[in-house]
Every structure is written in C-alpha cells, then in structure tokens.
Amino acid sequence: MLKIEDNISAIEIIFDQWKELLGPDYHAYKNHVYRMFHFCMALLHGNTEDKEKIAIAACFHDIAIWDKKTLDYLEPSAELAKIYLNSNGKAAWSDEIELMIRYHHKLTRYRDSKYPLVEIFRQADLIDVSKGLKSFGLPKKDVKAVLNKFSNSGFHKKLVSLTVAEFKKNPFKPLPMMKW
Q1: CB-based burial of residue 16 (10 Å sphere; 0-12 exposed, 13-18 middle, 19+ buried)?
Q2: For residues 76 and 125, what is the distance between their CA atoms, to the nearest angstrom?
Q3: Domains of the chain by range and CATH?
Q4: What separation in angstroms does the CA of 136 have from each of 44, 79, 121, 130, 154?
Q5: Cα 72 to Cα 69: distance, rounded to the nearest angstrom
Q6: Predicted model pTM
Q7: pLDDT per residue over 25-72, tens digit each?
Q8: Which residue of 51, 102, 108, 143 lies most exposed, with the fewest beta carbons within 10 A?
C-alpha cells in the first residue's frame, strides 16, 4: 500500500514563500505538487536524496505560470529551480532537476539512463493531468487514494482556461510547453 504523507518538509518550506504569488491558486498548485510527488515515489521507490530532488522539482516545475505569467513556463521554471538550488547548497542537482522540469511534458519517453528521475517525473505528471487514466502500472487504488487525499481544487480548470486563452492568441502555434 502506498504511504501518503501530507507534510513533506521540502515542499512546505518552498511553498511558505509562495502564498502571495499563487494567491487563489495556492492550494490547487500545492495539491498538484503533492500528487506528483506521491506518484513519483510510487513509481520509483526512491531513496532520501531522490525524495528531496522530486520534492524540489515538483515545487518548481510549473511555477513560472504564476511568477512570469506565461504559458511558456518550462525554461523560466527551470531557471527558478536552478537559482533555488544554487542558493541552498544543492547546485550539483541542477542538471537533473532542470531536465525533470524541462521534459515533464515530453510526449515520448525520456531515454537518458543517466537521469532516471526525468522519466519518472514525466510519468507522474501525466498520471495527475490524466486524473489516473494513464497510470504506468500503478495500482488504481493507489492512484485514487492520492487523488482523493489531495483534491484538485481547480488545478485542471486553471490549466484548461490558460490553454484556451493561449490557443485564442496563437491558434496556429503549438502550445509552448509541449515537448517532442
């Protein structure tokens, strides 16, 4: 059975700084981060270092949507994570966490075996965005338990409204956050 934690210190420390930035989307994004974190851990069964890397990457992976007010958020989110890592003595993790963020919307498998967390992170985001329709072998009861524990709080609705607005502005341009 999947162990569900509702207080991950690495996530809580980062999110404490973002209440004003995220405003009414605070709980929606935080719950998305917690869902992704748990899906990653279920897929990986990682060690303590992996757990912290996943927590940091999850916090930063979409943050530029709010910080930079853009749907073209992958690079700016990766840059914000890099600044955080450098200022917290974890610069050695920068390459891997930047890749986790940059490729979490990759439509095909990430195949560089040097960084297995990148593919795990991509899968976890897809599990959450699909609301468990894509599960990558996780038991449905575990997926459902995570989805129930950390409510959506309007996260998917926010993504749809941002996507529709972007499509209206640029109907013939692919969504900027999608990666092949």
Answers
A1: exposed
A2: 18
A3: 9-169 (1.10.3210)
A4: 11, 29, 12, 11, 24
A5: 9
A6: 0.91
A7: 999 999 999 999 999 999 997 688 999 999 999 999 999 999 998 888
A8: 108
